[in-house]
């Protein structure tokens, strides 16, 4: 894999701060040169799957299904637009890793102050933990539904299962990639089967892919949700910051000759193919989830969008849309398959979340722990709030326990809105820069244009959605005082995020200017 680059390499504009990203697997997968398209694509396929699972994790499920229940196919266009934005962002993340040989955390830390690096590390760790909470809850609930394992034990099992699966890195990173791809196909098969039985209106599905003025409307309000809040929920659950850090790291697992610019260009090209193919699969999974909300269930019958409620609804003939579904549901197949897909989704995402924790810790604060300890710490910190939630509510009754877990999962996603701008904007700034990427690999004007539109729109939507997310902490019917408090906290946080973002942009701008001046002096 070669030695880590030092801070004085003249041909590297960004220096490695703590060795190579994911050093134990960096450059560990050989790729052919001069071979056919399909053979080369196969060699590069895998990192895109690790990234794609973040776009179909348990956090996406209830938002898509509820959106379908409340607004039919209106929000299909939101899923499509989110997927296209995801493809653009992940392309830039992979390119950054391949060209600079640094992951996003290393690249940000290399050009910002130590104080800002620590602040951004804490913020990003909170976002990863929020993502991990949803994934651990999803996998634990699946174990409970499938095997009747008490939730507390199920949570602990997911921890050790992840550690066991990650030992596959000792015998080759391709094993991890293959496992993840297999689990993705399990999820895809389950929903294709259920949708095929429901016989949806495909003409309405395709019409829903075209956005209209009603897509982001604040009326009507159905089940406490408007099209706007439904769209924000789907966007918030889809584009998450940890995927950008992960992709910039795992894109470096292929062994590339960085002295050959054409070989680097080929790596960027095939990594983009891999990413787009896998994210297309993620789009189909999310689209199928929304179609499931419309076609599998009778409109308005799913009162409980939690995993427990959806599991029960799939075995209840009164909630299902046609006789064929009812006859299959009576056998328990639909609900069992749903739980299997949930387990696959949660397990997939916890694998990638653990890898991302490693990337963040090493990149931002240069802390290098033994691999097993680093992964164990990352996972256990995320599991603590889930365990506490289960212990507190288990004595109050099953219903309270289920509601508390669902609320914890939903409310934990608030941190994603904080962290997303601090990954997207630096990523776009660095890949736009010729000083960082070189003339050949910097973003062209089209990528810059759509990149800034996507980044500004996502940042705006995430921050404007914060008041609603803060309201959710006070339950379904908050009082006027609680609403005032929620809005006060939300707007204070928004101001804090914007100030911190200004600090980050200023540091990155100064760093880029410094690098340009240094390169001119060398010339």
TrEMBL record:
It comes from Vagococcus luciliae. It comes from the Bacteria. The keyword Chloroplast does not apply. Keywords: Cell membrane, Ion transport, Membrane, Symport, Transmembrane, Transmembrane helix, Transport. It is a multi-pass membrane protein. H(+)-stimulated, divalent metal cation uptake system. The chain crosses the membrane at residues 71-92, 118-145, 151-169, 176-196, 277-297, 376-394, 414-433, 445-463, 483-506. HAMAP family: NRAMP (MF_00221). InterPro entries: NRAMP_fam. This is Divalent metal cation transporter MntH. It is found in: Cell membrane; Membrane. Belongs to the NRAMP family. Pfam families: Nramp. Its main location: membrane.
